[in-house]
Design a protein that fits this description.
Radius of gyration: 20 Å
Number of domains: 2
Shape: globular
Order of helices and strands: EHEHEHEHEHEHEHEHHHHEEEHHHHH
Structural class: alpha/beta
Number of helices: 16
Low-confidence stretches: none
CATH topology of the largest domain: Rossmann fold
CATH architecture of the largest domain: 3-Layer(aba) Sandwich
Strand content: 15-25%
Strand order of the largest sheet: 4-3-2-1-5-6-7
Oligomer: single chain
Helix content: 40-55%
Mean pLDDT: 95
């Protein structure tokens, strides 16, 4: 019997790669519903190809336009409530959340409560509400499978092992397009240069996060909740080749690393088919052609993002949600040329310093903190 899947964010980078996996494993996987924000042209093409019974369009205006061009027999949901309704479809076995930003939190949380397995690509879900979400995951006994290449690597390294056997988690990162640069030079960086990632082909927000190393900051918080490991046992190392996707060091001093060509279809397939492995369509590593693997410490003086993550975890409560929201606003302001590249860090730091955190927050409190942080980050004045 085919595993029935819903893809939230089907028109984005992760969503498109997921559909590539589904095409390769069409005898094993079936997409019953897809959702996107506003790219209805691609959404329509996907719906027709997949013969989807259900489609959700988050943008209300675009949803009306999509209804006029939707394939016959396709039910269309609209708005945030429509995305939520799609994620709760009874026939779905697994929900892949690849929504950029905070829009995936409520659908994922409610899908977990409904007993759905989750494949999570949206970092923001666990950064905002990791304690709350994982409490429900344990309560409902559902699978919560990481899609990020780094967290998928960790998941594969520690599968079947006792938590107390893990000494530390080592997240790898390419270093982004500005690796080795000083802040003084990065002040003049443009959005175009920030989007020129040396290895990965990703969406614009995630690519800029890679340039600031905020992607690693978010991944530190995400790893804390996914693997129940405190922040002081989660390290980051820069690995420009992006062949080793992360590592786990055990208490006996041994280290396991997960390796593959840098292609998101590897971790996506692992999550969609778990716990079964199927033959892949991608080329394996050719060790004879590897010129070498190099590693270096992250430059926290010129890239302060990692410090934000450790501070957010230490303070806890609503602070990680505030960090995340401030980053989203700052990235958008940079893309609109309102601020310099280096001001992204300044806005995050100031917004976090202004926040009075709330411990063990409810979902409403998290969403309230998120809104407060967005309003605050939008109003931060840069000299």
């Amino acid at each position: 019997m085919k595993k029935k899947i819903i893809i939230l964010g089907s028109t984005g980078s992760i969503g498109r790669n997921a559909l590539s996996v589904v095409r390769h494993l069409s005898d094993e996987l079936e997409v019953v519903g897809i959702a996107a924000n506003s790219n209805i042209r691609l959404l329509e093409a996907q719906a027709r190809e997949l013969k989807c019974k259900y489609v959700a369009v988050a943008d209300e205006g675009k949803a009306e336009e999509f209804r006029r061009r939707a394939p016959r027999g396709c039910k269309v949901f609209s708005g945030e409530s429509g995305v939520l309704e799609l994620s709760l479809l009874p026939e779905a076995d697994l929900v892949l959340c690849a929504i950029v930003g905070t829009g995936g939190l409520v659908p994922v949380l409610e899908a977990v409560k409904a007993g759905k397995d989750i494949a999570i690509a949206s970092k923001e879900v666990l950064v905002m509400a990791g304690e709350l979400v994982m409490r429900e995951v344990r309560k409902r006994k559902v699978k919560f499978l990481p899609v990020d290449s780094e967290h998928s690597a960790i998941f594969q390294c520690i599968e079947g092992r006792k938590p107390e056997d893990v000494r530390r988690i080592i997240l790898t990162g390419s270093g982004g397009p500005f690796r080795g640069m000083k802040i003084s030079r990065m002040r003049s960086a443009t959005s175009k240069s920030a989007l020129e990632h040396p290895v990965w082909d990703m969406g614009p927000k995630v690519t800029i996060d890679s340039a600031t190393l905020m992607n690693k900051a978010l991944e530190i918080v995400e790893a804390r909740w996914l693997f129940n490991v405190p922040g002081d046992r989660i390290d980051v190392v820069i690995h420009p080749q992006s062949v080793i996707h992360s590592m786990v060091e055990f208490i006996d001093g041994t280290v396991l690393a997960q390796m593959s060509e840098p292609d998101m279809r590897f971790p996506i397939q692992y999550a969609l088919t778990y716990p079964v492995k199927h033959a892949g369509s991608l080329k394996p590593l050719d060790f004879a052609k590897l010129a070498g693997l190099s590693f270096e410490e992250p430059d926290r003086r010129n890239f302060p993002a990692l410090d934000f993550a450790y501070e957010a975890l230490e303070k806890g409560g609503t602070m990680p949600a505030v960090m995340n929201a401030a980053n989203e606003v700052a990235v958008e302001r940079f893309r609109k040329s309102e601020i310099r590249f280096t001001d992204i860090w300044n806005i995050i730091e100031k917004t976090m310093s202004y926040h009075k955190r709330l411990d063990r927050p409810s979902l409403d409190a998290i969403l309230s903190a998120d809104k407060w942080a967005r309003d605050t980050a939008s109003a931060v004045r840069i000299q």
